[in-house]
Protein backbone atom coordinates (compact mmCIF):
# COMPACT_ATOMS: atom_id res chain seq x y z
CA UNK A 1 0.00 0.00 0.00
CA UNK A 2 1.26 3.48 -0.90
CA UNK A 3 1.59 6.01 1.92
CA UNK A 4 0.21 9.19 0.31
CA UNK A 5 1.26 11.35 3.26
CA UNK A 6 4.86 10.99 2.06
CA UNK A 7 4.07 12.35 -1.40
CA UNK A 8 3.41 15.91 -2.45
CA UNK A 9 0.81 16.68 -5.07
CA UNK A 10 2.55 18.48 -7.92
CA UNK A 11 0.28 20.66 -10.01
CA UNK A 12 0.93 23.31 -12.62
CA UNK A 13 -1.06 26.33 -11.48
CA UNK A 14 -3.40 27.82 -12.41
CA UNK A 15 -5.39 24.68 -13.14
CA UNK A 16 -8.91 23.36 -13.13
CA UNK A 17 -9.85 21.55 -9.91
CA UNK A 18 -12.91 19.53 -8.93
CA UNK A 19 -14.47 19.29 -5.50
CA UNK A 20 -17.16 16.72 -4.79
CA UNK A 21 -19.70 18.28 -2.42
CA UNK A 22 -22.37 16.44 -0.43
CA UNK A 23 -25.32 18.37 1.02
CA UNK A 24 -28.61 17.46 2.69
CA UNK A 25 -31.47 17.06 0.22
CA UNK A 26 -33.43 20.04 1.57
CA UNK A 27 -30.57 22.50 0.91
CA UNK A 28 -30.15 24.46 -2.33
CA UNK A 29 -26.71 24.14 -3.90
CA UNK A 30 -27.00 27.50 -5.71
CA UNK A 31 -27.44 29.40 -2.44
CA UNK A 32 -24.55 27.56 -0.79
CA UNK A 33 -22.17 28.16 -3.70
CA UNK A 34 -23.17 31.84 -3.93
CA UNK A 35 -22.34 32.26 -0.22
CA UNK A 36 -18.96 30.57 -0.58
CA UNK A 37 -17.76 31.75 -3.98
CA UNK A 38 -19.60 35.06 -4.49
CA UNK A 39 -19.00 35.92 -8.15
CA UNK A 40 -16.07 33.56 -8.77
CA UNK A 41 -16.45 31.63 -12.02
CA UNK A 42 -17.33 27.96 -11.59
CA UNK A 43 -19.30 25.04 -12.97
CA UNK A 44 -21.57 22.95 -10.78
CA UNK A 45 -23.27 19.78 -11.91
CA UNK A 46 -25.41 17.24 -10.06
CA UNK A 47 -23.71 13.94 -9.37
CA UNK A 48 -25.67 11.43 -7.26
CA UNK A 49 -28.37 11.18 -4.63
CA UNK A 50 -28.15 8.85 -1.66
CA UNK A 51 -30.29 5.72 -1.79
CA UNK A 52 -32.37 6.98 1.14
CA UNK A 53 -32.74 10.40 -0.46
CA UNK A 54 -31.24 12.32 2.47
CA UNK A 55 -28.19 13.63 0.61
CA UNK A 56 -27.29 14.99 -2.82
CA UNK A 57 -23.81 15.29 -4.28
CA UNK A 58 -22.46 17.75 -6.81
CA UNK A 59 -19.23 18.27 -8.69
CA UNK A 60 -17.86 21.79 -8.38
CA UNK A 61 -15.22 22.63 -10.98
CA UNK A 62 -13.26 25.84 -10.94
CA UNK A 63 -9.92 27.43 -11.66
CA UNK A 64 -7.54 27.46 -8.71
CA UNK A 65 -4.59 29.81 -8.83
CA UNK A 66 -2.15 28.15 -6.44
CA UNK A 67 -1.88 25.61 -3.62
CA UNK A 68 -3.08 28.06 -0.99
CA UNK A 69 -6.13 28.94 -3.07
CA UNK A 70 -6.99 25.26 -3.60
CA UNK A 71 -6.66 24.30 0.08
CA UNK A 72 -8.39 27.45 1.33
CA UNK A 73 -11.39 26.76 -0.87
CA UNK A 74 -11.51 23.23 0.50
CA UNK A 75 -11.50 24.56 4.08
CA UNK A 76 -14.19 27.14 3.34
CA UNK A 77 -16.41 24.50 1.76
CA UNK A 78 -15.83 22.09 4.67
CA UNK A 79 -16.68 24.79 7.21
CA UNK A 80 -20.00 25.69 5.60
CA UNK A 81 -22.89 24.70 7.86
CA UNK A 82 -24.93 23.08 5.06
CA UNK A 83 -22.15 21.06 3.44
CA UNK A 84 -21.90 17.58 4.90
CA UNK A 85 -18.71 16.45 3.12
CA UNK A 86 -16.12 17.62 0.57
CA UNK A 87 -13.88 15.22 -1.32
Main beta sheet: 4 strands, antiparallel
* Strand residue percentage: 35-45%
Q: What is the terminal-to-terminal distance?
A: 21 Å
Q: What is the CATH class designation?
A: Alpha Beta
Mean pLDDT: 92
Number of separate strands = 4
Count of spatially separate domains: 1
Structural class estimated from helices and strands? alpha+beta
CATH superfamily: ACT domain
Number of helices: 2
Residues in helix, %: 25-40%
Query: Helix-strand pattern, N to C?
Result: EHEEHE
Strands side by side in the biggest sheet: 2-3-1-4
Low-confidence stretches: none
Description:
The protein is an alpha+beta fold. It has one domain (10-86): 2-Layer Sandwich (Alpha-Beta Plaits). Helix content is 25%, strand content 36%. It contains 2 helices and 4 strands. A 4-stranded antiparallel sheet has the order 2-3-1-4, covered by helices on one side. A hairpin with a 5-residue loop joins strand 2 (43-49) and strand 3 (55-64). It is globular, with a radius of gyration of 14 Å. The two termini are 21 Å apart. The mean pLDDT is 92.
List the helices and strands and how they pair.
Layout (H helix, E strand, L loop, with lengths): L14 E10 L4 H9 L5 E7 L5 E10 L2 H13 L3 E4 L1
Antiparallel strand pairs: 1-3, 1-4, 2-3
Which structural traits does this protein have?
4-stranded antiparallel beta sheet, alpha+beta, 87 residues, Alpha-Beta Plaits, globular
Amino acid sequence: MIDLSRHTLELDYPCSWEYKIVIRHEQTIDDIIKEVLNEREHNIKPSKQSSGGKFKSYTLEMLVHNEDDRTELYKILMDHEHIKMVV
